[in-house]
Amino acid sequence: MHRFFRRNLPTERWVRSWLGKHPLVSRFLARSGFFGMQRRTLARGVGVGLFIGLTPTVGFQIPLLAALCVTLRASFPAAFLVSWISNPLTAAPLYYVFNRVGEAVFGELVRTVLAAPGMAEQAAAQTLYLVLGSLVIAAPASLLGYFLFLGAWRISVLHSWRSRE
């Protein structure tokens, strides 16, 4: 498997050379903070990664991460790493919790909108519970991740300053 990725993924040298041939794309990505490693850019990347990772967007996560990182000037590497909170091992339990939260919070509303008892309506209701429940969890988690990252960064800087004395 390692050999497959080594053969088929572009090398850092190739990416740098491609970006050198396309200065507009390079400038755009640099200005957007797409590959940025500054404190706030990384924190926004953590927030974006948590939000996308905690929503049922399997199959669309990478394009959504890229679009949100460019839009919000967030670090794509940080967002990509954090989005792995929903990996194949954790997806099923997360989706179950999202469904239960969505049903608990929006149950009556969805039942009044989809009143017919057919199979298609039940599937639509369960999908709505999943999506709405994930948003209820993902939005606060992404904000919390953003502020926790900034706080942890500040603590690490203060600790390094104190250790110099």
Helicity range: over 70%
Mean pLDDT: 86
Largest sheet: none
Q: How does the overall form come out from the CA principal axes? A: globular
Unreliable parts: none
Integer-rounded radius of gyration:
20 Å
DSSP strand content? under 5%
How many structural domains in the coordinates? 2
Structural class assignment = mainly alpha
Structure overview:
It is a single chain. With 165 residues, the chain is an all-alpha fold. The protein has two domains: 1-32, no CATH class; 33-164, no CATH class. Helices cover 79% and strands 0% of the residues. It contains eight helices and no strands. It has helices at 2-8, 12-21, 23-32, 39-53, 61-72, 76-82, 91-113, 119-164. Helix 4 (39-53) runs parallel beside helix 6. The longest helix has 46 residues, at 119-164. It is globular. The chain starts with a helix and ends with a helix. The model has no long low-confidence stretch (mean pLDDT 86).
Secondary-structure blueprint of this entry?
Layout: H1 2-8, H2 12-21, H3 23-32, H4 39-53, H5 61-72, H6 76-82, H7 91-113, H8 119-164
Helix pairs in contact: 4-5, 4-6, 4-8, 7-8
Quick structural gist:
The protein is an all-alpha fold.
